[in-house]
Design brief:
It is found in: Membrane. Keywords: Hydrolase, Membrane, Protease, Serine protease, Transmembrane, Transmembrane helix. Belongs to the peptidase S49 family. Its main location: membrane. By secondary structure, this protein is of the alpha/beta class. It has a domain of 221 residues: 2-enoyl-CoA Hydratase, Chain A, domain 1 (Alpha-Beta Complex), CATH 3.90.226. Helix content is 44%, strand content 18%. The protein contains 22 helices and 23 strands. The strands form five sheets. Strands 11, 14, 16, 17, 18, 20, 21 and 22 form an eight-stranded mixed β-sheet that branches. Strands 9-7-6-4-1-10 form a six-stranded parallel β-sheet, sandwiched between helices. The protein has a four-stranded antiparallel β-sheet with strand order 8-19-23-15. It is globular, with a radius of gyration of 28 Å. The N and C termini lie far apart (90 Å). About 4% of the residues have low confidence.
Length: 619
């Protein structure tokens, strides 16, 4: 019998769908392959790293987002996020400094334009570094003009470093001073039946007070008023110096700002001009015309210009055989393990220290610290690595940036010299442990925990059980031991008695000026001065280069970093920033960030013992 049967209709539909899906998949992969191939050919045969800087060019310094020591996150992640418009806007301080340094002696650069509108924040420490750099640049005789539409304190501080400040005709200028406000959660946590177990040493160790109080403690209030007032006075003094104004004029204005605006009929720009805070009111078209007159006109932009990041990269010179001072950036919270840039990892940061130790061309190391601390254990791991580097014969100098407190001070204290800005937040020498439990919260919805264990500590670290007395005693004893170890190490490194250290410790935060008076810091100065001191200590004179010690990307990683942005843009995805970056901090966001830090060691199965001040330099 002959069979002439065909597959039923469902089978034929499935086979047709599968063939279509296969064809579509092959087409997508072929398109992607052609895009990658075209980019590779372009990179290999048509790209050029040479950047031409024409004569009569204006250097444009327009910081984007927050000014930082180093970018946050892995390079590939940043490249992808930038292409997708989801990047965190950041500007590296080193790029601005390098551009100003090279432009001072470059005859092709005739002037500098500082744009302030994209700047989100500039912490007091970095204000010191930039003011020094602009002062050196202005000695070349070239003009610096600052222009912006809306200037708050950070933007105005940057603008004040210029020869003249030009405010947009419809712009505004506002100073509201520095403040330190936090959310306090005790009443809310009590309503949720959360059992807060906090262990700490130090009268001023206020990092986790919001979890046990509904308001600021008097000790924290006194300490905060001291360092916050010091920072604000520094801001007033520096702006007055830059603008050639009596500081009393600024004090009077900031104390009666609303009255001054009301007297100007609400015209903030006119008030700023009348009070001498700005030199001219200039619209953007007028700005372009003015700069074209002093530089070279350009039909597209109005004047010939180059951005500071491109210029810094084009001006970078490298002499392979020169002696070097290595800079290791330690920015962000201190945690255990391997961490990306923007976070200090006990393993990743220690690896950079060992990398500097093995490099014979690096004769001295500057550790650039910008951290409020974190894990006490990770801090001690990094300190030990730095001590090993010192013992190898290479001088180790610490340069404190905006914040180097608690764990940030822990990793800094053993250096041959400790440098800070007058406005650096440092100290906060203290320890705390935090372990909330939720047994009563669960009981509210009828969930209970019960069982047996073999020792008094069995099951003690369960978040669904009340923390028993043996565990409480253990934690408090361990925290007190950690504090004694901390102040003993400070006493050893700073050549002080333990009693003397305890008097300036207790978790209290100091500014750099205050810390120097108390023996916690050696010198006040910039990163450049700290690097020069490291070079002198190594005996290499002035003929040296500065090298940032960073993890080297493999050829494979570098290829994808270069390709990621171009590939995604070719797919037609517009670059737009998320709204989240512009939104004010939401209720509870600070609590989430603090808890994330405290429980950063949760994967290891043990609670975190923290040396952290949870303080942040105001902007």
């Amino acid at each position: 019998m002959t069979s002439n049967s065909r597959p039923n209709v469902l089978v034929r539909l499935w086979l047709g769908f599968w063939r279509g899906l296969t064809a579509f998949r092959m087409a997508v992969f072929n398109i992607l392959f052609l895009i990658v191939l075209a980019l590779v050919i372009r990179i290999l045969f048509f790209s050029s790293d040479e950047i031409i800087v024409d004569a009569q060019t204006t250097l444009v310094i327009e910081p984007d987002g927050v000014v930082v020591e180093e970018y946050t996150g892995a390079p590939l992640d940043r490249a992808i996020n930038e292409a997708l418009g989801q990047e965190l806007p950041e500007t590296r301080l080193r790029d601005i400094l390098a551009a100003l340094e090279h432009a001072a002696d470059d005859d092709r650069i005739v002037q500098v334009l500082v744009r302030t509108d994209k700047l989100w924040g500039l912490a007091p420490g970095m204000q010191t570094e930039l003011a020094d750099a602009f002062a050196r640049f202005r000695e070349s005789g070239k003009t610096v003009i600052a222009h912006g539409g809306m200037m708050m304190q950070s933007q105005y501080m940057l603008a004040s470093m210029a020869d003249e400040i030009w405010l947009d005709r419809d712009g505004m200028l506002l100073f509201d001073g520095y403040s330190q406000y936090r959310q306090y959660y005790a009443e809310g946590l009590d309503k949720l039946k959360v059992d807060v177990n906090l262990f700490r040493v130090g009268e001023y160790k206020s990092a986790m007070e919001p979890f046990i109080r509904n308001d600021m403690s008097e000790a924290d209030r006194r300490a905060t008023e001291a360092w916050l007032g010091d920072l604000w006075q520094n801001w007033l003094d520096r702006v007055a110096l830059h603008r050639g104004l009596p500081v009393e004029v600024l004090v009077e204005l900031t104390e009666n700002f609303s009255d001054a605006v009301e007297a100007a009929d609400g015209d903030l720009a006119a008030m700023a001009l009348e009070r001498g805070l700005v030199d001219r009111l200039v619209s953007r078209p007028e700005l372009r015309a003015e700069l074209a007159n002093s530089g070279t006109g350009d039909p597209d932009t109005g004047f010939r210009q180059i951005d500071f990041e491109t210029y810094a990269a084009a001006s970078r010179e490298w002499h392979p055989r020169a002696d070097r001072v290595g800079i290791i950036v330690a920015q962000g919270a201190i945690t255990e393990g391997n961490q990306p840039q923007g976070t200090i990892g006990s393993e990743s940061t220690s690896r950079l220290i060992r990398q500097a130790a093995r490099d014979d061309r690096i004769k001295a190391v500057v550790l650039r610290v910008n951290s409020g601390g974190g894990s006490a254990f990770a801090s001690e791991v990094i300190r030990n690595e730095l001590m090993a580097l010192k013992e190898s014969g290479k001088p180790v100098i610490v340069s404190m940036s905006n914040v180097a407190a608690s764990g940030g001070y822990w990793i800094a204290m053993g250096a041959d010299e400790v440098w800070a800005y007058p406005t650096t937040l440092t100290g906060s020498i203290g320890i705390f442990g935090f372990f909330p439990t939720f047994q009563d919260t669960l009981a509210q919805i009828g969930i209970h925990t019960d069982g047996v264990g073999t020792t008094p500590l069995s099951g003690a670290l369960r978040a669904d059980r009340e923390l028993q007395e043996p565990a409480r005693n253990l934690f408090q004893s361990f925290i007190e031991h950690g504090y004694r170890e901390f102040i003993t190490l400070v006493a050893e490194h700073r050549r002080m008695s333990v009693e003397e250290v305890d008097q300036v410790a207790q978790g209290r935060v100091w500014t750099g000026t205050q810390a120097q008076r108390r023996g916690l810091v050696d010198q006040l100065g910039t990163l450049e001065e700290a690097v020069a001191s490291a070079a002198r200590s190594a005996g290499i004179g002035e003929d040296y280069q500065v090298q940032y010690v960073e993890r080297r990307l493999s050829a494979f990683e570098q290829f994808f970093v270069d390709m990621a942005g171009a590939s995604i843009r070719m797919a037609g995805i517009d670059s737009m920033r998320g709204l989240a970056g512009w939104l004010p901090p939401g209720i509870g966001r600070q609590m989430i960030d603090e808890l994330r830090l405290v429980f950063s060691q949760a994967e290891s199965g043990r609670p975190g013992v923290m040396a952290h001040c949870l303080c942040e330099a105001p902007r």
